Amino acid sequence: MSEKVAVSLKINGKEVTLLAAPEQNLLRLLRENGYVEVKCGCEEGDCGTCTVLLDGLSVKSCVTPACACEGREVWTAAGVSRQERIGRLLRDNFAKYGASQCGFCTPGMMVTGVNYLMNNGVPDRQAIRAAISGNLCRCTGYKKIIDAIYHTAQELRRETAGEGML
Amino acid sequence: MIKKGTGMACMFYPNGSTGKANPAGAFIKINHDGTAVLNIGATDIGQGSNTCMAQIAAQEMGLKLSQVRVVTGDTELTPYDAGTGACRVTYIAGNAVQKTARKAKRLLLDAAARKMGLIHSGQLVIEEGEIFLRYWPAKRMTIAEAATYSERILGQPIIAVDSYSPATMPLEEESGQGMPFEVSIYATQIAEVEVDTDTGEVKVTKLVAVHDCGKMLNPMLVEGQIEGGVVTGIGYGLYEQIIEDPVEGGIRNPSLATYQIPTSLDVPEDMVIDCVEIPEEKGPYGAKGVSEPTCNPTAPAIINAIYNATGVRIRDLPATREKVLFALRELERKEEG
To answer: Checking phi first, is residue B48 left (phi over 0); if not, alpha (psi -120 to 50) or beta?
Structure first.
């Protein structure tokens, strides 16, 4: 393996400098440094369980070179699910609507869900289905995941409407 | 042209094979703080069996669900179990847990009776973590007190061990008769599809799945299992196939990009899940199981729906676009004579 290089980035709001091999992907870098909530599924960009937010965009960390993340901001499932208000609400709704069964797709679904709510955020089942279509799930049948995101979107919308911001 | 059709499939699925021993074991200890630890060999692979087993134990011992901790997935700590599969955990491991919990409860009530100065524990009831006399509820104590008394005064920590295996009954070789399984699970699924006759694409627009899994111990888990199974069944019916290389050997599509499983966009908008709860007297609290049968009738229902829509009968799964299109062309040729 080639010599490691230092990569400075912000993970879940904290500045860190990690050592990465030039060919290493972001997924391996995160997992090696204790961010094991980022799961490794197929490692070829198909399944989406390794999804993280990179500068606000959801990306599959297995096909993102670690060295390309210098100076950028990464949020993992654990980070976003602790965030007020979207992350926590979505996390609670995942539990409430039974959106997690074996749980392997859950970290990726959480990140993709938060990304949807951050950007579009419309309680529209068809749009949610399209948004999570890059994340595979084998055991829930997607319905309860869509339910959780949908209800979170609805609750957030109701809150904003209540504050007169719409 | 888009053609619509509806198809149905019914099934029964056996649970608890009796051909050879098929056991599940359980240990329970009740601690002096009134909590219980349940060790079971049956592993939760995401279907939620730990929750379900804790529910059975809590219900049987009169504890709150939060007072039961489940230890599983480590053969160093847990008793033998034949494995998580074939729908057997709720039924077989559930029965083992119920039997064990009943034993633990008996020990607990005996200790409580001794503490209360009763000769017999027959009139004692446990509810929500407290033990009381049926017709004199003021005479009561907590499970913690009874367990502590049993441990510290009677010198008998509350531990119970039991197991369950369906009565073995090998098939009679000459007549082929016997009872291969203890119980059966029943289900019917109905699929509504749209077939694009120009491309051969099949889209499942609605799916109704009605299952008889006995009494539902946890409706949300049952629903989740059925939804997941149905979507897996759609995969079997329409997308998933392993392509072998006939020359070089090996598998040509060994990745999730080439072996396609349903995504959120392939799931029918309208999925109706229901259960006919017919309690099974041999099951724990009337439960049987739900898991595997959920994906069995889906593909046949879809294939029947394709037949209903277009008149072509696909006999080789999955019903990919190519297969459907080829069958449609062949049907056209036949009709033209």
So the answer is: left
Residues of chain B in contact with residue A103, where contact means CB-CB under 8 angstroms, are 46
ipTM, two decimals? 0.91
Range of the domain at A56: 5-76
- Rounded to whole angstroms, the Cα distance separating B2 from B62 reads 57
Q: What are the pLDDT digits (tens) for A110-159?
A: 999 999 999 978 999 999 999 999 999 999 999 999 999 999 999 999 98
State the pLDDT at residue A161.
79
Burial label, B173 (beta-carbon count in 10 A; 0-12, 13-18, 19+): exposed
Q: Please provide the DSSP assignment of A63-120 as one string.
A: GSBGGGGTT-EEE-HHHHHTSTTHHHHHHHHHHHTT--SS-SSHHHHHHHHHHHHHHT
| Residues A47, A9 share a domain | yes
Query: Which chain B residues are Cβ-neighbours of A116 within 8 angstroms?
Result: none
| CA angle centred on B105, ends B35 and B162, rounded to 5° | 95
Domain boundary among A21, A44, A76: A76
Give percent above pLDDT 90 in chain A.
90
A166 pLDDT band (50/70/90 cuts)?
Answer: very low
Asked if B231 lies within 8 A of A142 by C-beta distance, the reply is: yes
> Do residue B256 and residue A46 have CB atoms under 8 angstroms apart?
yes
